[in-house]
Structures are given as structure tokens and as C-alpha cells.
Design a protein that fits this description.
Elements: H1 3-17, H2 27-48, H3 52-76, H4 95-111, H5 113-132, H6 138-155, E1 162-168, E2 173-179
Antiparallel strand pairs: 1-2
InterPro entries: PAP2/HPO, PAP2/HPO_sf
Keywords: Signal
Protein name: Phosphatase PAP2 family protein
């Protein structure tokens, strides 16, 4: 894809986000926007790279991440870990950090650290923002990041992955080598 198309896609994404920011945005709103931008950008990268398999892996990664995080939140809600610093329920683990982390994990696993590092920095900002606004404790944010990282390792394969697998046929045994380009 040409550099011009990437710039156009980035500009369109920026223009769609600008109306959602108030003139004097507070930290919580900025954290919410960054939380949303990371997974949306991850899908956009797969889309603009014409990576159909990447789009499927993005969806599986996001769904698994949110299911695991939601199950953990339900499980911990009745414990002391489930209470947020501001007194509200469903504190452990952080859903915001998990959502942002799913996009960061996808980008880093599928396309490498060049894409993943900025996304993880954005996820760290979301984690800091949630703790700073007294919506979560650090343990909540770290647990969510760990869940996102682990789910990404399980559900996302690198774009140029090489697979070697044993194969067994009716009259033969062998190895199959497959390379994604």
C-alpha cells in the first residue's frame, strides 16, 4: 500500500476523533479516547494491509480478551479486590486497560515491535490515567495488561509466520513446512 493511502487513513481517523473531544478535555475523556483508538487502529492496520487473516485474528483476540476480563471481573467483584478506590464495583481487572491492551497485543504479535511499541505506550497511558483518576489500583491495570499480553500470544500469529508440522498419510509419514508471506 502506498504511503499516500496510509496518510489519508490516518487523517480520516484523526478527523473522526476530533468532534468527540471537548474544547477543554479532562483526563478521563482523553484516556477513554486513547483506549478506543488503539484497538481501532489495530484493525485499521490489518484492513489497510489487506490482511484478511489478521482481521480475523484481531476479532478473535479482542473477543477472547474481553470474555476473560469480564469473567475475572465477575469472579472478583464480591471480594475486596473487586472494589475500586472510588468505592464502585468491578474494579479487578481494568476493562479499559484490557481493551486497549488487546489492540497493543495484536499489533505487537502480528506486525512486530514497530507497531506494538507505540500501542503499548498508549496502553500504559490508559493504565496511568485509570489509576490517577482513582478508578483502579495498579494491580488492576497490571493484571489487565498481563491478560491482554497472554491472550495476544495465544490468539495472534506473526504476519510472516513459518509453521512446521508433522503429517501422516495412509502410506507415508512426513513434515509439512508452511510460510506466510
Amino acid at each position: 500500500m502506498s504511503r499516500r493511502r496510509y496518510c489519508l487513513a490516518a487523517l480520516l481517523l484523526l478527523l473522526t476523533l476530533l468532534p468527540s473531544l471537548p474544547a477543554k478535555a479532562d483526563d478521563a475523556i482523553i484516556g477513554d479516547v486513547v483506549m478506543t483508538v488503539i484497538p481501532v487502529t489495530a484493525f485499521a492496520v490489518a484492513f489497510f494491509k489487506d490482511d484478511a487473516e489478521g482481521e480475523k485474528q484481531w476479532l478473535r483476540n479482542l473477543a477472547a480478551n474481553q470474555i476473560i476480563t469480564s469473567a475475572a471481573r465477575l469472579g472478583f467483584n464480591q471480594t475486596s479486590w473487586g472494589e475500586r478506590p472510588n468505592g464502585h464495583p468491578y474494579g479487578f481487572p481494568s476493562g479499559h486497560v484490557a481493551f486497549a491492551g488487546s489492540g497493543a497485543a495484536f499489533l505487537s504479535e502480528r506486525y512486530g515491535w514497530h507497531y506494538g511499541l507505540p500501542a503499548w505506550v498508549g496502553t500504559a497511558y490508559v493504565a496511568y490515567n485509570r489509576v490517577d483518576n482513582h478508578s483502579h489500583r495498579w494491580r488492576d491495570a497490571i493484571a489487565s495488561g498481563a491478560i491482554a499480553f497472554g491472550v495476544g500470544k495465544l490468539f495472534v500469529t506473526p504476519e510472516n509466520a513459518t509453521h512446521i508440522a508433522p503429517t501422516i498419510g495412509p502410506d507415508w509419514i512426513g513434515m509439512r513446512w508452511q510460510r506466510s508471506w
